[in-house]
Design goal:
With about 350 residues, the protein is α/β, with parallel strands linked by helices. The protein has 2 domains: about 1-60, Aspartate Aminotransferase, domain 1; about 70-315, Type I PLP-dependent aspartate aminotransferase-like (Major domain) (Aspartate Aminotransferase, domain 2), CATH 3.40.640. It has helices at about 10-20, 55, 65-80, 90-100, 115-130, 150-155, 180-185, 210-220, 240-250, 300-315, 315-335; strands at about 35, 40-45, 50, 105-110, 135-140, 170-175, 190-195, 195-200, 205, 225-230, 260-265, 275-280. The strands form 3 sheets. Strands 4-12-11-10-7-5-6 form a 7-stranded mixed sheet, with helices on both faces. Strands 1-2-3 form a 3-stranded antiparallel sheet, with no helix packed on it. Strands 8-9 form a two-stranded antiparallel sheet. A hairpin with a 4-residue loop joins strand 2 (about 40-45) and strand 3 (about 50). The longest helix has 17 residues, at about 315-335. About 40% of the residues are buried. This is Acetylornithine aminotransferase. Its cofactor is pyridoxal 5'-phosphate. InterPro entries: Aminotrans_3 (IPR005814), Class-III_PLP-dep_AT (IPR050103), PyrdxlP-dep_Trfase (IPR015424), PyrdxlP-dep_Trfase_major (IPR015421), PyrdxlP-dep_Trfase_small (IPR015422). It comes from Verrucomicrobia subdivision 6 bacterium BACL9 MAG-120924-bin69. One of its GO terms (molecular function) is pyridoxal phosphate binding.
Length: about 350
């Protein structure tokens, strides 16, 4: 049996330099990671690291979780992918679980957060097109993805530099500013899209007053409310959607339900999964021929996402977030004001 040759970091880095588009800001000496287990990863030289990045808010159960490895193997031996012109049980089961955790409605499956946000915007525009409602209001410093549509939607000018002409129809207002949102909504407004917690904008939570105010004014004026939960959802705050905890702390949990919610990142725990929950207003807007994706909701992706939900529930990980979160917050608070640590929120 031929012995597997040892991976050489220098060769891997050289391979990247020669064959991989340099669109990521990697350090020239960034570690070449070859193995992971739980919260730790190892490089080609055997050095061990504690992974604080979690694959940019993705690896909610850490690396190489045995149950995820097993479900990938099992499902891979049964059915990986079929066209969405057919049915398969895993997609129906995952849709049911996500609807149960979010609210009455229906699911659309895709592969990433940007795709999920694109789907929300398409549905909102299609719903409003008959009345000339095509504009979408988003928040300054927001981030919704890097497709042409989502760099236009994101409230950061730097994302659009060099990619003009930019897709029109987006209006930007300050985050957590109800008066600004109220002034921006007009007869051409199709939707307001915000993050429950701004990620790239500085990890800034929406206030309960802001979310409730947005819900009230959008309902009164026939505008859809879209929540981007790609980075801040799926139990990261101890509740399935980040806005749930925000409203719960204000005693208003049952008074808020948006018209659509995008999901991705930790929904698949490292496996590419994207989804959109559509409430009753938008759930039947996307009809055959209006929107689709080849790989959305594959049997393998849905099986992985289902297993993640089961593990979180069975091991009571959502409840544990509050305990570990307070512990981490107290420790990090000691670093506030030192070096590059400005403020600790949570």
């Amino acid at each position: 049996m031929k012995k597997e040759s040892k991976i050489q970091s220098a060769e891997v880095r050289a391979g990247y330099a020669q064959h991989v588009v340099a669109s990521y800001k990697r350090s020239a000496t960034a570690p070449v990671l070859v193995k992971g287990n739980g919260a730790r990863v190892w490089d080609a030289e055997g050095r061990e690291y504690l992974d604080f990045g979690s694959g940019i808010a993705v690896n909610c159960l850490g690396h190489a979780h045995p149950r995820l490895a097993e479900v990938m193997k099992k499902q891979g031996e049964e059915l990986v992918h079929v066209s969405n012109l057919f049915f398969h049980p895993k997609q129906a089961e995952l849709a049911r679980e996500l609807v149960k955790r979010t609210g009455p409605g229906k699911m659309f499956f895709c592969n990433s957060g940007a795709e999920a946000n694109e789907s929300m915007v398409k549905a909102a525009r299609k719903a409003g097109s008959g009345e000339g409602r095509v504009e979408v209001i988003t928040a300054l410093n927001s981030f919704h993805g890097r497709t042409m549509g989502m760099i236009a939607a994101s409230g950061q000018e730097r994302l659009r530099e060099g990619f003009g002409p930019v897709m029109p129809g987006f209006v930007y207002v300050p985050f957590n500013d109800l008066a600004a949102a109220d002034q921006a909504i007009g007869p051409k407004t199709a939707a307001v899209m915000v993050e429950g917690i701004q990620g790239e904008g500085g990890v800034i939570p929406a206030t309960a007053e802001y979310l409730l105010g947005l819900r009230k004014m959008t309902q009164e004026r026939g505008v859809s409310l879209l929540m981007d939960s790609v980075q801040c959802g799926h139990y990261r705050t101890g509740r399935f959607q980040s806005y749930e905890l925000i409203l719960e702390k204000a005693g208003k949990k049952d008074e808020f339900l948006p018209d659509a919610v995008s999901m991705a990142k930790s929904l698949g725990g490292g496996f590419p999964v994207g989804a959109v929950w559509f409430g009753k207003k938008l759930q039947d807007v996307l009809v055959p021929g209006s929107h689709a994706t080849t790989y959305g909701g594959t049997a393998l992706a849905c099986a992985v996402a289902l297993e993640i939900l089961k593990i979180i529930e069975e091991e009571k990980l959502a409840e544990n977030i509050f305990v570990r979160g307070e512990e981490l917050k107290k420790g990090l608070a000691k670093l506030a004001g030192r070096g590059w640590v400005g403020e600790v929120r949570g």
